Every structure is written in C-alpha cells, then in structure tokens.
Fold each of these.
Amino acid sequence: MLKFQINPLRQRQFIGIILGIVLGTILLFTLSSESNEEYLSLGTMNTGHEDFSCNTCHSDAEGNLWQQVQSNIQYGMGLRENSVEFGTIDVETKKCLACHERDNDRHPTHRFLEPKFRKAVEKINTANCNTCHSEHHGKRVTLKKADYCMHCHEDLTVKNDPLDTSHAELIKNEAWVTCLQCHDFHGNHEYKVPHKMKDTIPLSTLKTYFNGGKDPFSSQKKFTALSEKEWIAKYLN
Amino acid sequence: MKKFTYILATLSTTFLISCGGVPEKSKDTKKEKLEFSVAEVLEMVSKENDVTRTLYTKAIVGAGKKQGMKFDEDWQKEDVEAGPLPALFLRGIANDIRKSDVPLGLYLGSDFPINKANKFEGKQGELFKKIKEDRIPQHFYDEDQKVYTAMFADVAGAPACVSCHNKHEQTTKDDWKLGDVMGATTWQYPTDSLSYDATIAVLKAYRNGTKAIYKDYLDEIAAFKSSKKPEIGDKWPSAGGLYLPSPEVFLDSVRELASYETMTVLLK
C-alpha cells in the first residue's frame, strides 16, 4: 500500500481518482459499442430514420481524438488558422440532402439563400432542414405552428380562383394554417387539390401526419429518399 | 518541487501542441494562383446561361410547341405529360449545381413574375431597376451571407418567352415584347477571386446542371403514356419531324454557341 505522508485524507482522494478512471474507461468502451448506440441518442429518431445507425448522419471528424485536441489547442494559441471538428462532424443540410434531394422540390433549401428571402429567413430559416425537421424527436415535422407560408406568400393573388373560399379571403382572415390542407410544402405527393374547403385535409389529420402518422396526401410519391443501404452504396462504396 | 511542476507542465503543453494534429486544408489551396475575379467568372457563366436558355426556349420549347409538344409548370407530376418551362429549366440547373461541391448560387426573378414569390425585393429590386434602364450587370457583396453577388439582365430572346408570359393565366403583365428585359438572374459565389481550376469547376457545374435537367426531361418523355414521343438523337433540329437532341447533342450545341465568349475569358 502506498504511503500518504502529507495527509491520510489523500488516500481517499487517490482511491477516488483510480475509481473514476476505471469507471470512465468502462463507460467509454461500453458506450462506443454499436449495440449500445441507443443510450447515447438524444431521443427517438424521426419517422423514416428509425433504423439508422449514428454514423449515418454523424460522420467521424478528420483525425483521431488526440489529433483533434492538439489542433484545437494550436488554434487556441494562434498557431493555426482553423479549428477542427471534435468527435463527429456537425450534421448540416447538405447531409440531409444526400438522401432527400429531389428535382421536383417546390421549396428547395438553397432557394432561400437568395438575398430577397433574407427577411423571411430571419423569421423561419427554411434554408436549413433542421428548422422544421429537428432530429431525435420521433416525429416527421417538429415545427409547432404550420402558418409559415405567410412569410413569403402574403401578397398572393390567384386569378380564376377555383376554391370555394377564395385564397384572397383566406389570406385576409390570416388562415395560414389552411395552406397545408391542400399544398404539401415540398410538393412530392401525387395529390389532386380539392376545390371545396370541406374536402381539404383536416388540420388534426395533418398534425397526426406531422407527428409520424399516416400520410393523408397520397402514398404515391414521385421521388423517395435513399435508404441507409442505398446511401452507403452511393456514397461509401 | 513547485519549480519542477511548472517546468513539467510547460514541456508537456509544448509537446502537446507541437506534435501532430489534423493537417490544415487551407495551406494547399493557398498555393493555387488566383487568376480570375469573381465578376469575370460570373459574367462568363451567365453568358453560357444566356446561350443555354435561348437555345432551350427557341429550339426545344418554341419548335416543340409548333409540333404539338407541351410544356408545363407541373411537368414532373405523374398525370402531366409535358416538359419544363424555361424558368423551371433554369431552376433545375440551379438545383443540380447545389448538389455539387461548387458553392455557386443561381436564381431567377423579375418585377412582374408569374409567381409572386419570385418578385425582386430590397437590394435586388433596386439594382434590377438599373438593369432595366441600361442592361449593365450589377455586382454587390451580400454582407448577410458573405457572398459576392451579381445580377444579369434576362432578355426575352425568343418569341415563346413573350407569348407564354403574356398568355399565362396568372401573369402580372401581358404586354411583353421581344427584346424586353423580363427579369434578371442572380448569381452568388463566396470568394472574390478564383483559380483556373475553380473557374473550370464553376463552368462544369453549370454544364452538368444543364445536362442533368435536360436528361430529367428526356426521362419524363420516356414515361409518357398517351402523348406522342419525339425521336431523340442527332436528327434535331431538322424540320418536319418530332425530334429532340440527346443530352450530348444539346450540350454540344450550347458549347458551339458559347465557346467564343467562354474561351476569350479562359484564355485571357
């Protein structure tokens, strides 16, 4: 047994440190195992992403952890120009688009990078998938209110309006939540838009869909997102 | 003992920061010679765009309509058998560029757009007024996004531009004439100057975008159920038949028409 000459209390400190190191090592190895990924997850994966492994979205950052620590210390001391990512790379819109990019997207994210959308983007950042589809919530759409069309379409006019309650009236009444009852934001569904308000999709049904329920627009879609297998085949093989 | 601890800590820190780390990417790119200003590159690619758009509007949409072919906003819907309107052709190119690693943005707008969401506002609105007067490209730095931005006149270069916009059910102006500035393209790029390789990458991204959207159109035609399918190959642009070029033939025609202007910039 080691001798603790300064103060016998140091012995307890020593045991504590050793215990901490041992427990930390066990935890590190246990949690980095693929079979235990669910314990690291921030929450249930969103609809359609249930079977994803962490690495599908969270790619490893360049270098090993030790190199990343070194690089960031160098950066902190002004010895290099750029810092580096630590652990994994941040999941950004481009990553989502690797599977979800579609030529028929009515509102592609890059569209909102045009200067004229600056004010709208300040209110709702539609240039970023995460604004409406925040991951780890076990849903499809995580935005609380579906009235975002107002930020760009408030001066919409429809000539020969086919709807029984005119678009002008809906806008005047600020009934912005009704837009999605006919028009899905990304426009990928094969869906015939009704001409009577009573035939539109009820808001409650839409909410169920946003929370991961059945698709009320149509099961027919022009483009489907890549599965994890297809993504691996396209980008990693 | 204290002195020893300090020396040990200093040596450990020096060791920690001086050995290894992740290599810096920017060091390699800095070696490249920056040959072109962003304004030069955007003007070059916008001229390619003018040629591409005019060729598509005149020789595909205009000529196709005379043969009974259809072009529609909802061209990608299952029950619509049609091709992309020129504005959507451009949107398709812009979409494809964004899929690449080239950070080039491309948008189309107007003061009288068919879809009000495409109406210019703010800085773009002010500059478009100038463009309408003198047709001179306008360049500015977008402080919010930290990107160099350029706007170029989009001129009604084919009868189909005028007739379709004037007759469109949702049009906001029905007296367009051939040669009018109907709108403007807006281009964005994040750096003020580009190397030769980066310039070629911009051009390639644009051309690949053209090829991709044109190929999408041909894929739609292949799925037509009730409409007559044109013959795709090298008979286009012969009159008297329903012909369309293959993507390679279409791009070759663009290259032929744009090469003088493009090469003049590249070989300056």
Note: The interface with chain A takes residues 13, 16-17, 19-22, 24-26, 76-79, 92, 94-96, 98-99, 105, 107, 109, 116-117, 119-125, 142, 144-145, 149, 169-170, 186, 188, 212-213, 216 of chain B (CB under 8 Å).
Amino acid sequence: MLAVDVKNIKKTFTSKQDTVEAVKDVSFQVEQGEIFGLLGPNGAGKSTTILMLTTLLSITDGSASILGIDVETQDKEVREKIGVALQDTGIDKILTGRELFFTTCRLWGYSKVDSEKRTKELLELVGLTEAGDRRVKTYSGGMKRRLDLGLSLVHSPEILFLDEPTTGLDPGSRRVLWEEIKRLRDSGVTIILTTQYLEEADELADRIAIIDEGLVVAEGTSDELKASIGGDVITLSFYSDEDLEKAKNILTDAVQSKDELRITVADGASKIPEYINKLISEGIEVSTVSASKPTLDDVFLEVTGNRLEGTEKAAEEKPTTTRKRRGR
Amino acid sequence: MQTNRSFAVQLQILTKRLVLRFLRRPLAELPNIFISAFFLFVYDGALGGVFGGSAQGTPLDFANGNFVNFILPVSIVSASLSGGASGIYLVEDIESGVFKRYQSMPISKWAIILSPMLIGALRVLVQAGLIMVIGKFIGADPAVGTVGFFVVLSIAFLWGMGFAGYSVAAGVRSGSSQGAQAASFLFFPALFLAPTFVPREALRGWLATASAYNPTTYVIEAMRAIMVEGWVMDVLLKGYIAAGLFAFITLSFAVISVGKATEKA
C-alpha cells in the first residue's frame, strides 16, 4: 500500500478582493519507508500541499489518501497515522521540554506512567535529556527544531510531515537534524519533507518532486533528475555585460542565468578549450569557466527557467575552474 | 500502551498547561489586582467621608455607615475583568502556532477553547478573592455575614466568565492578542455607566437611562445588596440573571467565533 497517494490536488483561496490558486495541480506517490522531498522556492505551493495532506486545509479539487485513508473525508483517522512538524506550529516556550513531551503524550491519550516513560524515550531520541528540565525559551533554534520533531513523534506515527525542518538553522544544527531524520527513515517511518535547500533535498530525499507555481514540474531520484539534463554543465562568466551579450549570440546552445552563461554538454571538462577558443577568436574575454556535474539547481533552472532563490549550491563543482586575467 | 482521550482528560491536561503558564507569569496578574485595589482604597478614601462612615445617619449615607461595603463591589467587578485574559491566552496560542499543533492532533476543539476560559475563571476567583481579603482587612463586613463573600464571589465568577467569552470572541475575530486586549476597554464605559459611586436613584438624566440598560448596574446592585442590606432576593436575582445572560451571550459568541476560525479554509 502506498504511504501517500496524491492525485491532481488543487487549492484555491478566494477572498473578496481576488482568487489565488496556491496549488494548481499536484500529484505524487510516496512508498512506505522512503523520504520524499518537495523542493521549490517560497510561494511554490509546498506548504499548502502539506497543510492539505495533514488535514489542516481543505482540498479544493482532486484527492489524497494516507495509507489508503481519504484525507478529506476521514481526517480524524488520518491524524492518528501522521506526525506533523510545520513551519509555523508552535511550542509553548514557558514550559520545559519535559513538560511539553509529557503534556503531548497525555493529549495523545497515554496514561501518566506511560507518558513519563515515553517522555524519557523521546528526550533521549532528540538529544534533549540534559536540557529537558529547562524552559523552552532558553533553547537554541536547533534544540527547538529537535523538540518540535520529537513532539511530532509522540504517538509513533507511520508517516511524518516536516515542513522546512531546517530553515533558519546553522549548518551544524542542520546536520544533526538530518541525521535524526535519516535515523527515523531507517526505523521505518515514511517522511515527506518540504525544503528550499537543494543540498537538503539531495542529502535526505530518496525521491524528489520539484514544485513551482503550484505545479509538479519534475519528479524522480536526485540522480534521475540530474541525469535528465543530459551531461555536465559548463558555466562561463565575463568581465562585462557587453561580452556576455556577444557570447550569448555566439554560443547559441547557452542559457543565461543571471550574469553567467550555462551550457549543458556531455563530457564538459574536455569541451572547455573549444568554447574558450571560440570566444577568444571573437575578441571576448572570459572571466571564469567551470565544468560541473549538474546540481538540482541546474535541474530547477532547466525545468522552470529560473534559479531556486535563496538556496545553497550543492558542493559538487569540479576543481576545473580556470581564471583568465584581463591583460591591462 | 493504553490510551484515554476523553474530553474530560483533554480539558484537564490543557487547563493544567495554562495553570503552569499562569503560575510562571505571576507579574502579569499584578496590574489588574493593583488597579482593583487602587479603586478600593482611593474611592473609600475620597468618597467614604461623604457617602458613608463619618457621614453616617445623613441623607448621603447609603452604606449604613460602612462605605467599604458599598464600594467593594466596584473593585470586585474590576477584578473580574481578569477573565478577559482567556482571549489573550487563546490568541497567544493561535499566534504562536500552538493552536495549529493541537488542531493537527485528535483533540476536541472544545477542549482547546474551554481550557483558556477555565483559566480565566480561575483568575477571576483568585483576583476577586484577593480584593475581598483586602476589603475585609480594611473593614468590609457583609450584611448577610461571611457567606456574603462567597455569594459576591459567585456573581463575580459569572461576570468574569462573561468577559472571558467576550475576550475570546474579540481575540479570535481580531486575530491578535492586542485585539483581545484592546477589546477590554469596553470595561470602562460598562463600569462607569452604572451606579458606581452612588445608588441608581441618585443618578440623573442620560446616565440614569444608560445605567438602566447596563448589565453592570444589576451586578453591582446585587453585590451591594449582599454587602449593605442583606438578602434582597429580587435584586440578587436580577444580578445573577444579568451576569448569567452576559456570560451566556458572550460565550455563545465565542463558540461561534472560534467555530468559524477553526473551520478548514
């Protein structure tokens, strides 16, 4: 049975002023035990999709089921199966971590004895045993996210929804959280996470759906998506906008991305001299050139025509960068 | 692991959580207690010599010689405004996202809503109780005996729940804790368009008319009857009806408002 089955869901918000189609047409399937990433920029429709799947928003059109249970008509049953850590779900900061776990366990229906036991387990799981008796307002951002993750696990959900779980965290805290998410996946929990970080999607997700403007524009494993580009990416930058414009006219297979030209080609490193010579012969000076394996950002650029803004580039660039100085 | 998700258990847990919050922010209780006690001391000091106490036996003595008995209900009504914290608690939960977390869990919506109201009731009892202790200390002595304090407290409780419902509705509709706080300013016209300093018979013109339509009037008069006159049943009944109706209307308004706010968009 599929963990999550989403078929052509749409979400339209209607107000007196206007109508906004936040999600236009999203479909995907998630197998049990995998991490599925929804990658896209702010406003792409990722969080709205998650809110619909977690029963917090109604679905305007289409259908979705969690472990075969219809999200729209059986919301109570769905909530039993899922854990939710949303971007804007809150934590009562005046309580201690231990009190929060205990309260949440009790709300899920555990007895006092069982709640104490589960609280201890979860504090250990998210590495907050020592900080458990401190009020949450004294926690760092990373500790709060781990606490949030732990709170979503109280009832041992089969499926976990994480909406941008590491946004705003420093790289160290992000790594710690990634390890915990992987450990959960390894223990059999299905995880659906949204992210705008390419590196995060690459590192965590077994499969990825790229969402842009409310539509799924590409889907597959990270390798499949990168392979879909069909080669390496050569990136060229120039000293002047004038040179950039001229180069664009010469290299007709290049795509402009901000102040760079990008060419997708097989065996990119070996093709660099050919392109450089072509440009030099036309009097165009190249500032930098590099060949790299395609990143998810390249995939995103390929399928949407835009870069994924505010993201970190995956550290995949080969050390083949050459730099030519303008001889003045 | 066995589970028990009864409404009563959920309500108890959510209320306990707010009790912890209440106990950990004791300073938040001080302003309202201070204002209520301030009213008691200032009004007694400023008006007690004219309307009671030293003016005993004069036509201006409407307190049977004990102005503290006469003015204490004003301070208690003021203290019962602390029920308005319910809306602030609820809106804080909405603003912080805690409310959304609870919505994503199989918890009764009504337990989520009722718990801040119960904590509002607790605040009313604590604050009104403290004002009564202060009142007793400076000479309040109910005409019906000590039981009078409990009768007054029960009216204050109902009245405070009315403010709790009002603040929840105002907070949810405005969507901000500032909105819930701002709405509490209704309290001032409610308190002063009433026989606050003198009996209703001594009011005149538009103020006499306004006070007749103001439920606060009947609440204050019922408390005063207990403190100054004794078991005046018709006045007492009107006080309970006014406070009860106010609570019923505002709580219904709160339930409708929260129901709309929690509908899936």
Note: Chain B has a mean pLDDT of 84.
